[in-house]
Structures are given as structure tokens and as C-alpha cells.
Design goal:
Structural class: alpha+beta
Radius of gyration: 17 Å
Shape: globular
Low-confidence stretches: none
Helix content: 25-40%
Strand content: 25-35%
Number of helices: 3
Oligomer: single chain
Largest sheet: 6 strands, antiparallel
Number of strands: 9
Length: 164
């Protein structure tokens, strides 16, 4: 049987995702956007979402949450504010922190992902090392991301030249 693909807006499928994770079914979907680069690449990599204890997420968890403007975001928690029941969150390719994200806006949390065809869980030791290192590098992350992007473009050009 061939695998089917459904392309839809997040606002249309979020009720389905919420129902599935609430009933204990994990949901896998391909991400869109570059805010979690270099870990996750738009339209290539996918995440496995699971039910979240919305008020007890941990530092470095990656929740799927809804902003007040209705946009859906998948970013990493960098600080837990227990007394305010909120989180400070930032994308891996960003350095500006979104503060005070309420636990009530969380739909699910990432428990694994597929990157370049390889599957990882958030318990994987290499992933955990990456997360901590990338957190330390937060002030210079945008510059590192630009270097990765330029290097990737250069590699593609060199491959194209060598194929000719």
C-alpha cells in the first residue's frame, strides 16, 4: 500500500492532533518553517508529537503551542516559570526569547523526530548533547546558521559542477 500525503493548514488539523494525543495516539508530521534549523529542516524533517503535561514541561522540551494571534509554533523551552505556570521559548535558529508562554496554549510535545531519514528520540544522548551545546551558543546562533546555509549552498553548487 502506498503512503498517502495530506497537505493542510495547521489550524485545520490541530483539532485532530489534539484529539489523537489526548487519546494516547502519537502524531507524526512534516514540519514547515526554519525557526528550528539546523536541527529540523522545513518540508524535509518530521516530528513525533505526544501528549504533554502542559503545566509540567521541562527545560529543552519542544512543545507545539498556539500564539494569541492563532499561529502554531514548535520551539524549545529555555526556562520554566513554575510560579507563573509559563515558559520562555525560542526557536533553534533564533536568539529572541518569547517569554511567558502559558501552559494552557500547549497542544503536544515532541518526543522524537526524523531528520534526513534517521529517527531520533529526545532521550538520545547525541540529541541531548546537541541541545545543551546549542543553548550555550544562543548569542551567536544566527551567525552559525548563516554559515551552515552558505556552506550548504556552496556544497550544492560544487556537486552540480562536478556532475556536469
Amino acid at each position: 500500500m502506498e503512503k498517502g500525503v495530506i497537505s493542510s493548514r495547521m489550524s485545520e488539523i490541530s483539532p485532530i492532533i489534539e484529539e489523537c494525543v489526548e487519546n494516547g495516539t502519537d502524531v507524526n508530521f512534516t514540519i514547515r518553517g526554519f525557526s528550528m534549523y539546523p536541527l529540523l529542516y522545513s518540508l524535509r524533517d518530521s516530528v513525533l508529537l505526544t501528549k504533554a503535561d502542559k503545566n509540567n514541561l521541562k527545560k529543552f522540551d519542544i512543545p507545539l503551542y498556539v500564539r494569541p494571534d492563532g499561529s502554531y509554533v514548535l520551539h524549545r523551552i529555555v526556562k520554566v516559570n513554575k510560579e507563573k505556570n509559563s515558559y520562555d521559548i525560542v526557536g533553534d535558529a533564533q536568539k529572541e526569547i518569547e517569554r511567558g508562554v502559558s501552559g494552557s496554549t500547549v497542544i503536544a510535545v515532541v518526543k522524537g523526530f526524523e531528520r534526513k531519514g534517521r529517527k531520533f528520540t529526545t532521550d538520545n544522548i547525541l540529541y541531548r548533547i546537541y541541545v545543551r551545546l546549542w543553548y550555550i551558543l544562543m548569542p551567536v546562533r544566527p551567525y552559525i546558521c548563516r554559515i551552515f546555509l552558505k556552506a550548504g549552498k556552496l556544497i550544492l553548487k560544487l556537486r552540480k559542477i562536478s556532475d556536469e
